[in-house]
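Exercise: predict the fold of this chain.
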Amino acid sequence: MKFLAIAAAAMLAAGSVCAQTAGTWMMRAGATQLAPVGPSGCMTAPDYGDGSGCSRSNVSADTQLAGGITYMYTDNISFDVPLALPFKHNVIGAGSLEGAGKLGEVKALPMTVFLQYRFLEANAKFRPYVTTAEAAAYIELIGREGTIHDDPPPAEEPLSADPDDEYLLDLARAAAADVLVSGDSHLLVLREVVPVMTPAQFLASLANR
């Protein structure tokens, strides 16, 4: 069962600006909604493909007061504990159980600790972050679906006006990549030489396939 979490959080700080430096404690408060994505898969046979003869279930959404506590271990690494009142969800019949109404009730309580890495400087107004679980899942996905290449030797003639972009161009050529996805302006101007797309253009090309 997949969950969609929607949070509206108000940061509580002593001053108008809160630098996220090592040793800082931060609190947040708001509301969080858990909205399970349904219906479930087929729970009984037979399944005729149109839902007939197949028992399924849906789970209702619930919104509760929520918040959390964050401790900055370093200027970039933090520990986060989400807090919320228990979420209550009704299990509702679907498929061949359509019309059966409420079948049961489940409760969920978010009890976990996240290790986060926060980007940019400690006094930045906006600091995106990623959890170790998300990073591990992304690395696992790349290892499973991608192809790993060794760093190729640099080209004799650089193409990009930005020397820091050359390794990407070298790797794209060595791996015979179909397209290099980037929003870097120094790379996008080379699209006549190397196939380069912005993320939006790449997603659009996939949608048209």
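Check your answer against the key: The chain is about 15% helix and 35% strand.
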